[in-house]
Amino acid sequence: MVTIVKGPIMGITTIVLATVTALLATTAPALAELPTPIDAATARVYLNDLKLKAPHSMNGYSRAKFPHWAQQGGNCDTHDVILARDGTNVKTDEKCRAISGIWHSPYDDMTITSASQIDIDMVVPLANAWRSGADMWTTPERKQFANDLTHPQLVAVSAGANRSKGDQDPSTWKPPVKSYWCMYSRAWVQVKHVYQLTITDPEKAALTEMLDTC
Question: Is residue 1 included in any domain, yes or no?
């Protein structure tokens, strides 16, 4: 079970990720599914509310400034939780590592049977978040963002799709499976809205195009 407590910290929602139990051995228990993004109509409203701004400098950026993966109880961290959540028939060892299971990568419609071929994608990449406002956050706030199990920010995808995307926004990278554009754009807009991150003009145009597929 994932226990979540919310409260304000410096203008963004604080998510305190608490105990995840019984993920140690045998078959992983059923967890909450990927948080469903806001609907398309709400996403369009949120998109228009997001501030348009040129990207911030990458000076000082480091992935280490977004501590991940956070411990979630027992031997499990955020990475382990997402692998168990997004897979089918996932079995874990005594260290909570996935040793078998089946995963469907929604970005490229691949079925994968080895956890080593799965990456946990951050829908809004860390570097993009830095360029759009996270450079002004505290380290605890960046840790919260990088380990968010409440909003549609983390998803298990093929390593190839994740690495092809890198830190690009929708103006330069979209999921190869066009039928996933609706879900992806809704998730992207929701995360930017929750964390009060900015967007660029090309990013907004691309997200509008993607929302039009809904």
Answer: no
